[in-house]
Amino acid sequence: MILSVPKITNFYTVKEAQTNKITLIIQTILEGLRKPKKQGLPSSTFTNLNLNPQKKPVLLLVSFLIKNQYTKMEVIKAEEGFQPVNSNPNIQRKVIHLNDLMVTIIDFHNGPMEVPDPFHHHPHEQITYVASGSLKFFIEDRQYTLHTGDSFKVASNLKHSIQTLTEHVRLIDSFSPIRKDFL
To answer: How many CB atoms lie within 10 A of CB 40?
Structure first.
């Protein structure tokens, strides 16, 4: 397993609170290394960080990173990582991203839709590949029927929507810049 501690934010979007916790753990490890071996750190320090005080200082950071999945994940298996969208179990999304590149896989299990989703827009450019199923794609005042293997693109801030035509639709979306609202 490869860890990239010095460049952790190059591989992951780490929320500010998580960054602060990592900083606190590193400071705790350094403090522990500076103290005489017999003195050690108070056990409350480890309890507050939800860590095991019996571990060696360097292992504290490693266990925190592994526990919180800050390992460099280069492979994402097909069925891993899907989350309900807006608490709707019939719409599942997987987000895969680096610093400047984002791909999402979104599964709709609620089709065919009686009416289109509400129109929306965002500053991100979007390219979508229809991996399976059929849908109507609406962009501004235009409408298209798309099937497995088709693609569409959306320039920044254009109003767009979809309406699934089959029971299951899988879309693969790419966004630039990344959609921080999906993280």
So the answer is: 13
Please give the Cα distance from 179 to 181 (Å, whole number): 5
The two most distant CA atoms of the chain are separated, in Å, by: 73
Strand ranges, E, within the chain: 83-85, 88-97, 102-108, 125-132, 135-139, 142-146, 151-154, 160-164, 169-176
Token digits of residue 135: 């849908």
Parts of the chain with a pLDDT under 70: 1-73
Q: In whole angstroms, give the CA distance from residue 104 to residue 130.
A: 12
Q: What angle do CA 13, 61, 37 make, to 5 degrees?
A: 155
pLDDT, position 97 = 86
Q: For the packed helices 16-34 and 57-67, what is the interaxial angle rounded to 10 degrees?
A: 160
In this predicted model, what pLDDT tens digit does every residue of 18-71 receive, in sequence order? 556 666 666 665 565 555 444 555 555 555 555 555 555 555 555 555 555 444
